[in-house]
Amino acid sequence: MIPDLRRLACLAAVTLAAAPAPLQFVFYETQPGDTLTALAARFDAAPAEIAVYLDPPGEWQPLTGKLPGPGLLPAGLRLRLPAPTGPAGPAERRLPDQEVIFSAAAADFNPQAYLDEQGGYLATFLERQVSGMPAPAAALIQQVGLENSINPRLLLALLETRCGCARGPLAEGANPVYLLGVQGWKLNGLYRQLVWLQSQLTAGYYGWRAGTLTEITLADGSTVRLAPTLNAGTVALQHTLAQWYGRGEWEAALADFTTLYAEMFGDPWARAEAAGPIFPPGLEQPALSLPWLPGHTWAYVGGPHSVWEKNGVEAAIDLNPGGLRNSCEPSEEWALAMADGVIARLGEGLLVLDLDGDGSEHTGWALLYLHLEIRPGLKVGQMVGQDDLLGHPACAGGPASSAHLHLARKYNGEWMPAGGPLPFTLGGWVVGDLPGTYKGTLTNGETVITACQCGTRATYIRRPRQP
């Protein structure tokens, strides 16, 4: 009897040891801009493992069965997810999203007035441009901020972190040619340093939004898995500071920057609250028409790609008037307003159309047109109607090998990925992603067109004549 009891006890112990440990969960409340795909990547979970608490019926249910589509999740959903395995980096949210992008929180900020008040190195700094004309630091900061929709306050604060040059004299050891301390080919001068800086912020911010950035590599080569409950603004900061610091210095730099930013510009969270959430519940793109004349045919030559600098968020598409023309001579075809709006900004080859009527590209929907020979007489603040003539596709405003139209969208200052959760839709044609930059589709019903710079008939879209 005793041996049998011992054998049974051993079998029970083996059974208990072999039993799987109970599944551990974490709980999360969705933020504006969250998507199911991104959350699954951040928490290292399958979408089917994510549950939402519904009241009624007062229970957890699979989130995948409760979504109307693949778009943005409503903010404030109570989710239950499997606990990620392994350690993660610091989880404190240090910077709101509105302080990274050029949102309404930055619309009234004047970099020159701030630098003049501080009286530091950058207040009188001038940099010679390609044109030969000198440009002040404030103008370069504003330019890079507008072009890439990055908050000028943040650019200034990161400059102060690296060179002490926003509020005082140039810090000891700082290089006036490389104010951010980043040296390399084509990185000399303030403008190029700022372009590099915005690229780091953009990579962190939009990589977190998309769920493609879940780990960062620090300057000492070590890696840190990002805490899955962070916000995009904090990840942008963490990713940028990681370019300069190893693990111990990096965590200290995050805390120091939080203090510095508040000293320079006040409470960023209060500004974010006053500006409101970037994405309101139920956000949809307004109806947009194709940007050319009815009865005319253009080609879809460029799928989702970066808006301004290389390697940015893929929010832009390219359309070629009347098929492929390997010439930068302005086309005779007209580019049209895709919706009613107010011209918010004009530049060389550039027009930004504000769709909510307040004249600001930092609030509501805004459309960016690039490589445009702008129709004479248009001016900032002017109202235009859908299908009004804006200009002719050309090569103006940036690198281009042939006349074409480069289009992108923003909402509340945030670039909207062309093939993302709220896809770019023009005249019933919906942009889709394919692997690789400039790759993508336009779909209308059962008709699918794949972007190709070849400009063959397979890429043609004819806008129907109005009845």
Structure description:
With 467 residues, the chain is an alpha+beta fold. It folds into 3 domains: 21-82, no CATH class; 97-275; 297-462, Glucose Permease (Domain IIA) (Distorted Sandwich). 24% of the residues lie in helices and 22% in strands. It is built from 9 helices and 24 strands. It starts with a helix and ends in a 5-residue tail after the last strand.
Task: Map the helices and strands.
Layout: H1 2-18, E1 25-29, H2 36-42, E2 51-54, E3 59-62, E4 78-82, H3 111-118, E5 126-128, E6 134-136, H4 137-148, H5 152-163, H6 190-210, E7 215-217, E8 223-225, H7 232-241, H8 247-265, H9 268-275, E9 297-305, E10 316-321, E11 335-336, E12 341-347, E13 350-354, E14 365-370, E15 372-374, E16 383-384, E17 389-393, E18 405-411, E19 414-415, E20 425-426, E21 429-433, E22 440-444, E23 447-450, E24 460-462
Antiparallel strand pairs: 1-4, 2-3, 2-4, 5-6, 7-8, 9-10, 9-24, 10-18, 11-17, 12-13, 12-16, 13-14, 14-18, 15-17, 18-19, 20-21, 21-22, 22-23
Helix pairs in contact: 4-6, 5-8, 6-7
Summarize, please:
It is built from 9 helices and 24 strands.
Shape descriptor: globular
Total domains: 3
How is the biggest beta sheet arranged? 9 strands, antiparallel
- Give the quaternary arrangement of the chains: single chain
- Count of extended strands: 24
Tell me the span between the first and last alpha carbons.
95 Å
Number of helices: 9
Mean pLDDT: 92
Approximate strand percentage: 15-25%
Task: List the main descriptive attributes of the protein structure presented here.
9 helices; globular; Glucose Permease (Domain IIA); 22% strand; 24 strands; four-stranded antiparallel β-sheet; 467 residues; alpha+beta
